[in-house]
Amino acid sequence: MAAARSMRTTLTAMTESGFKRAIDPLMGRNMQAETASTYQCRFCGERLKHTFVDLGMSPLCQTHIDSSQLNDYEPFYPLLGFVCARCFLVQLPEHVAPKAIFEEYAYFSSYSDSWLNHAKRYVETISGRLGLNSTSFAVELASNDGYLLQYFQARRIPVLGVEPAKNVAQVAIQRGIPSVSEFFGRKLAHKLTQEGRQADLLLGNNVLAHVPDINDFVGGMKILLKEHGVITMEFPHLVRLVEDNQFDTIYHEHFSYLSFTTVEQVFLAQGLKLFDVDELAAHGGSLRIYGCHVEDASKPISQSVSGLKVREAAWGIAKLERYQAFRENIQATKRNILEFLIEAKNKGKSIAGYGAPGKGNTLLNYCGIRTDFLDYTVDRNPYKQGKYTPGTRIPICPPERIRETKPDFLFILPWNLKDEVIKQNSFIRDWGGKFVVPIPRVSGYD
Ligand SMILES: [Zn+2]
Questions:
Q1: Residue 45 CA to ligand 1 centre (angstroms)
Q2: 396 has which bridge partners?
Q3: CA 20 to 30 Å from 31, out of 38, 108, 109, 260?
C-alpha cells in the first residue's frame, strides 16, 4: 500500500515536472497516442492530439466470417477516436480504404420495419414542405437498396440513388429505382451536373459520418444542388452518443461523430448554410439538418438552429474536458454488461443475441463477449445468416432459431430498435424468456 502510494507520488511529481507523457504507465497507450499521433483532422487539417475513446483492437464490423474462413486470421485495427482541438470534430483515422469497406456491404435498410416507416414519414413531410412534384428531382446519397426512394417514386417524383456498394445498388436497380454505383464527391457531382441532373432535393441519411473525405463530399453537394435546392442530412448526434454511453456506435466504417456546431462549419467552408434542424429519436438520437447555398436568401435561418447551438455550447461542445470524461463512462458500461452476463451464466441461464449490426460488433469485441456468453445471435438479413460475427465468431442464425432453443434471455444488440424487436419476439414470454438491452446501461425487460 505504502509502495503504491509512493509510486503514485513519484508519478505525480513526474507529471508536474513535465515527464508524464513519456513515462506514465497508468495512462497506457492513450497517452502514447496523444503524443505519437501523426493524424490530421479530416476537416480542418489540425494535428490530432486528444484521444476521445480507445476501444482496443477491432475488426471491420461488416466483414462477417463464413464457415470456410473459420481457421483464418482476421485483420484487426485500432479503434482509437480523437477530438480535434480546433474544430471539435470527433473522428477515427482512416485505416482501411472505403473501397475495401463499402463496395460489398451487408447492410440492407429494408430489413428494418421501423427504419422503413421513418423513411416513409420523411418523404411525406419533405415532399409537402418543398412542394415536390413530377418536375422535381430528388437525389439520395447512399441510397442503399432504394428503401427510401421507393416512396418518392410512389408519388411520381423523379429520383436518382447514389450507392457505392455494388451488391446493394443492384437490388435497388432490380426494384426499378435508378441508381449509380459510385462514391459521391466533387467528381461525380460535376458529371451529373454536366448531364443536367442537378437536384431540387439532395438527401443523405447516415452517410455524412461514413465518408472519410468529408470536404470533398460536402463540396460535391454544393455542385449538385440547384440554385434554390435543399439538402437534408441525418446523422447520430454526438451529444446523445456521449450522454447515453453509445460507445458501440464507434466503428471503423463510421469515420466522424458529429455535432451541429461542427457540421455547420463543415458546410460553411463549402459555401452551404444550415437554415433548419430537427432533433429525431432515430438511432438513439439524431439530427436532421437542412442546408442550402449561402447565396440563397429565400430561406431564413430558423430559431431551432440558434437554440441548438446555444444548448451545444452550454453542454461543452467546445471544451476538451467534456470529451475526455467519456472514457470512464465506457469502462463502467462494459463492467455492468459483463456483470449481468456473468451472473446469468453462473445461474445456468441461456442467452441468445438478437441482431448482428455494426454497433453489435464493437460491443462484442470491446467487452470480449463470445459463445461463452451468447450461444448464437439471429438476424433477419439472409445475407448474414450462416455466417459468424467478425472477431468474436458468434454464429448468426435465422430468427426461427429462437423458438427452437427457447433461450432465457434475448440480448438485443440493435438497442435503437428495441421496441420493434421486443414486439416481434414477444413469444419468448411463453417460456419465461426476458429481453436485455445493453445501452445506455444494461437493463432487463419482461
Ligand atoms: Zn479539425
A1: 6
A2: 377
A3: 260
Pairing mode, strands 351-354 and 409-412: parallel
Question: In the chain, what's the furthest Cα-to-Cα distance?
Answer: 79
Count of Cβ atoms closer than 10 Å to residue 386 Cβ: 13
C-alpha cell of residue 13? 511529481
Q: Is residue 28 packed enough to be buried (19+ CB in 10 Å), middle (13-18) or exposed (0-12)? A: exposed
Span from the CA of 287 to the centroid of ligand 1 (angstroms): 20
Q: What pTM does this model have?
A: 0.86
From residue 16, alpha-carbon distances to 10, 21, 422 in Å are 10, 11, 53
Coil, strand or helix at 429: helix
Ion ligand 1, residue ranges at CB < 5 A: 41, 43-44, 46, 84, 86-87, 89
Lookup: cell for 174? 432490380
Q: Please state the length of the chain.
A: 446
What pLDDT shows up at residue 105?
63
CA atoms of 80 and 62, how far apart (whole Å)? 18
Write the CA distances from 372 to 271, 285, 346, 430, integer angstroms: 53, 32, 12, 25
